[in-house]
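User: two proteins, same treatment. go.

Assistant:
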Amino acid sequence: MSNKPAYHGGIVILISFAIAFILTMLPLSDNIKIYRPEWLTLVLIYWCVALPHRIGVFSGWCVGFLFDIHSGSLLGQHALTLAIIAYLSYKLHARIRLYPLFQQSFIILLLVALSQMLILWINGIAGETYGDWSYWIPSLTSMLIWPWLFYLMRNIRRLYGIN
């Protein structure tokens, strides 16, 4: 008989997404807000790489849809974007796992930049424009925060025995 809880870490995964959601929606001053990492995207990438059999495209779509509803943005733009990022993370999970953290950070930079590019593209189709270079700073901060987030999430996953 196993000593693992019946939920097999599902609650821990949901809590990690809830914390990422809170960190994403946390009100910050305009000077600091431009440096905020893409928390939802980072947590989604982590779980897609760590547990590709449990977290995937549908999870990315659900998280993105909830973010669209809460932020009041064009319905489906974040859902589509996070579903695409989840798909790419799922397809590349075996390779990403093999890379050292500094190389993983560059992959994170590319995935988050792709996410931002998709949002920019969807907003452009909807008639909204962004002309400031600071739009791309979260890609860099996400890349820089990845090693610490990776270690934290891995330790939590091991602590709770999530497989």
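Protein 2:
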Amino acid sequence: MNRIFKIAVAAAAVSTLSLTAGTGVFAQMTMPDACKSETSASGTMQMPGGDMGQMAEHHKAMMEGMRETEPAMMQGMMAKDPDVAFVCGMIAHHTAAINMSEVELKYGDDQQAKSMAERIIAAQKKEIEEMTEWVKQHAK
């Protein structure tokens, strides 16, 4: 299986989990049906057209944006201090959101979606700055 695809699937799996408040148990996030990818009978995600080479350019760009941030996200979340692990993981997660938003600005057609992407970029950059400063002050 293609390495980029494996990373994208792993990142998507991490992204679809959310921590249930107060329980420490992970629960799968509910997505609108229109957001769900096609799956095979085994439940695994199918690549559009069968492989990365046949994917649309925007799909390739989204996957590349995830591939670039996944190692940093995983590394950040491995910090011994749970607060530092959270904040470091979120810095990389926010960077992935910026990458995805930039793909929308490049390939998207809908003005409302593009406007959301612009707002996401601005908000995530501000939060990355805040989190980076927090890490400088709190990481041991």
